[in-house]
Amino acid sequence: MPPEAAEPPRGRTRRPVLAHVVGQNIGLILAVAILSASIVIFAAMFVVQQDRLPGSFEITSTVNNTMPLALAAIGQTIVVLTRGIDLSVGGVIDLTNALAAIFLTGGVWHMAVVSVLIVLAGGVAGLINGLIVGFGRLQPIVVTLATLSILQGLAIRVLPTPGGSIPAGYTAFLVNTNAPTALCFLALAALGWMGFRRSRLGVDVFAIGNDEQAAIALGVKALRTKIIAYTIGGMLYAVAGLFLAASATGGDATTGDDYTLTSIVAVVLGGVNLFGGRGSAVGAICGAFITTMIVNILFFAHINPLYQSFYEGLFLVIAVVFGALIGRLVRGGR
Amino acid sequence: MSEAPVAPAEAAGVVGVRVVSKAFGGVHALRGASFAACAGEVHGLVGENGAGKSTLIKLLGGRLPPDTGSVMLDERAVRLSGTADAARHGIGTVFQELTLLPWMSVAENLLIGREPRSAIGLIRRGALAREAEAVLAGLGIHHIDPRALAAEVSLAERQIIEIARVIIRRPRILLLDEPTSSLAEREVEWLFARIRELRDQGTSIVFTSHRWNEITAIADRITIFRNGQEVGTFTTIDEAKAITLMTGRRVDALYPSLPPVPDGAPAALALAHGSLDGRTEFAFSLAAGEILGIGGLAGQGHRELFLGLFGAPALRRGRISVGGKPVRIANPADAIRAGFGIALVPEDRKTEGLLLSLPVRDNLSLPLLRRISRLGVIRGGAEMRMSREMISGLGIRTPTPMQPVGALSGGNQQKVLVGRWLLAESRILLLYDVTRGVDVATKHEICELMVRLAGEGKAILFYSSDTEELAHLCHRVLVLRGGRIAAELNRPELTAESIVAAAMRDAA
Ligand SMILES: Nc1ncnc2c1ncn2[C@@H]1O[C@H](COP(=O)(O)OP(=O)(O)OP(=O)(O)O)[C@@H](O)[C@H]1O
Ligand SMILES: [Mg+2]
Question: Among all ligands shown, which has an atom nearest to the Cα of B437?
C-alpha cells in the first residue's frame, strides 16, 4: 500500500497575493506586453528608416490618433462586460461627428453646451439600445446592428457631404498637436474606470456579465444595469465622435464606420472577455494603442492602406485565438 | 414515537405561504400549498424530486411571485418584489442552484452589496479581502482563500461561501435549499453548528435535504411535500412513514443486497503508476462485476481521478488497461472510441454534462447517437422509444420527452444525467456522486440499478459524498487522501465509520 499522506486532509497552502493579482489580470498584463512589443517594433522600424528615434511629434500624433478609438473601446468594454456587444459604435460616432461639424461654433460657452448636448445625444442612442436589449430580451448583436444602420442613415441626413468646420480653439483644446496633452484625458478616463470598478454600478455590471441569473438572485437589478451600461457606452462613443471631429477639423458622416470593428478588436486585444464578466478598460485602452501601432507598423512596412482592414481583421482573429489559449493555460485546463 | 401531524395554521408562523399555486407552462409546481415556519425552529422540508420544495423556497425568498395565494410574513400577506426586497424583510436564501459569480473573488462574492467603502463611496479592495478573511474566520472557516476566484475553489467550498454569504447578513429568516448536497460530513457538522446557533438566537430556519439522517439530526419539525402540496407537518416521524408519505407508496429497505464478485472475474480496468499531481503514485484494478468505491474527504483528488480516467483531461501519469489490453486515453472521444465505455456523471450538473435548453430526449440519447443513427441520420423513432423507456424506468418527472432539461427539478435533471449513461450501455461505469440531490425513492432505484448492472458483469467505479452509501453499495473501498490511496477497505471491516476514520487519520 502506498505510504500515508504527510499533509493534513484540509488546510491548503495559500497562493501569495501577487499570484492572484497576476492570475486574475492576465489579460491586462498580456495587453501591456503586446503594446510594449509593438512600440519596440515600431521604434526599430522608425530608426531604420528615419535614422532617429520617434520624437515628440510622433508620440503626439499617435496619442491624438488613438483617442477616439480608446474612448470607443472603453464604452465597448462596459457593454461587453455585461455579456453584450455594441455594433452601433460606428453609427453613434458618425452621427455625433456630423452634429459637431454643424453645431460647434461660437464662443467657449456655446461650444461647451453643444458638446454636452452631443454627448447626451450619444447617451440617448445608447439608452435606446439598452431599452430594446433589456425590455425586449433581444440579442444585443441584432439590436445594435439595427441601430447602427439607423444611426448611419441619420448621420447622412444631418451631413450629406463631408464638410462643416470645427473652430481651431476646440481642436487645440482636445487634440493639441504640439504636445500629447490628450494623455491627460486618457488618464482621466482610466481614473474614471477605476472609480467605476469600485462603485455599486461597476460591481453590478461585472455581476450580470458573470452570471445574470445568479446576479438577479443576489438582488442586482439586471435590467437597469444593462440600460445604464449601454447608455454610458453611447456617451463615450459620442465623446469619441467629438475627438474625431476635432482632429479632422471637420465632419464626415461615414468616418466613424470603422470603429464598430476596431473597438471590438481593441477590446479583445485588451484582454476583455467577449462572454462578459472579465476585463478592464485599461486593457481596452492598451488594445486601442496596439491597433494604432499596428497601423503605424503597416505604414512603415509600406503596406497599402487599402489592406488595413484586412490586417485588423487578421489581428482580431489572432487575438481571439491567442486570448482563448492563454485563458486555458491560466486555468490549467479546468 | 408521537407522529401527530401539527396543522400549520395552529403555530404562530413567522414566514410561510397560504394556498399558493405556481405553474411553469403546463407544469404545476405548487398546487394550493400552505406552509409555515416559526421563530427559533429549524423546519425540515422534504419531498421527492419535483415535489415543489425549491419552488416554495423561491417564493419565500422573493425570487418568484406566486400565481395565486400569498406569501406570509408575521401572519400578514406580503408581496416580495425580488431577493433584495426579501432581504429588507430579513429573509436570506441559499438557493439550490448556486449563485456565486465565477470570475469574481471569494471576497467580492461574500460581501457583495456590503463591501467596505471609502468616504466617497468607492469599494476599498484591500480592506475587502481582509474583511472577508475576518468574516470567514468568525464563522470558523480558515481554509478558503478570499482572494481566489470563485471558479477556482471546489464545489464544497463554493457551497460554504454561499452559506456564509447569507449567514453574515444576519437574516431572521434563513432559507436553505439543499445546502448540504455537495458537502462532506465534516462540513455538514460545521453547518449544523451554525444553524443551531442561529436557531437559539431566534432565527427561523427552513432546511431541505434528501438525506434523512440530516433531517432528523437538525429539524425540530418536518413538513412533507408531495406533488406541489403539503402532506403534513410532524414533530417526529420515522423514515419509513415519511418515505411512504413522500412517495405515496411503500419503498423497502434502502440498500439492495450486493451479490459477491464471481471468483476469478477478469479485471475490466486497471491503472498502474497513476498519478494526479505528478508526485504521488497509486494503482488499482477493478474486476468485471465489481463495485469499487472511492472514498475520502472532499478535494482529495476524486474528481481529478474520475475525469482523468475519462480523459477530461487525461491523468498526469498512469497506464490504463481495459480488459487486460493497454489503452491510451487522451480525451473523452478516445475513451468512447476505444470501444470501452467509461461513463462519467460530472460533479456539477448545472454547468457540465447537460444541455439545459435541449429536450430531455436529446440529452438522454447524446452518447448513443452513433448507435441509433443510420448513415449519419438519427432514427427518430428509436431515439424516442429509448428515451421514453428510460424516463419511465427511472421515474423522471417530465410532461413529455421534449421538455427542455433546464425546466426540470434539480433531482430530475440528475436522473437524466444518470439515465444517459445507462442507456449508452457502457461496460465500465465511472459514477461520480450520482445520487447527490436525488430523492430517497430515486436513490433507491439508482442503487438497485447499480447492483443489477454489476450483476450483469459491468465494472463500476463509484464515488459518493455519502459515506453510508459507499459502505453499503461497494465490494471494496479505496480511501483517497492527498492524491494517494491511504487505505483499502474490504468487506467485513467496510463500514461508514471505518471509511471516515481512514479518511481523517493523520500521517502514521
Ligand atoms: N423554471 C421552470 N420552468 C419549468 N418548470 C419548472 C421550473 N422550475 C421548476 N419547474 C418544475 O416544477 C416542479 C417542481 O420543481 P422544484 O424545483 O420545486 O422541485 P423540488 O422539490 O425542489 O425537487 P428537487 O428535490 O429535485 O430539487 C418540477 O416538476 C419542475 O420540473
Ligand atoms: Mg429543489
Answer: 1
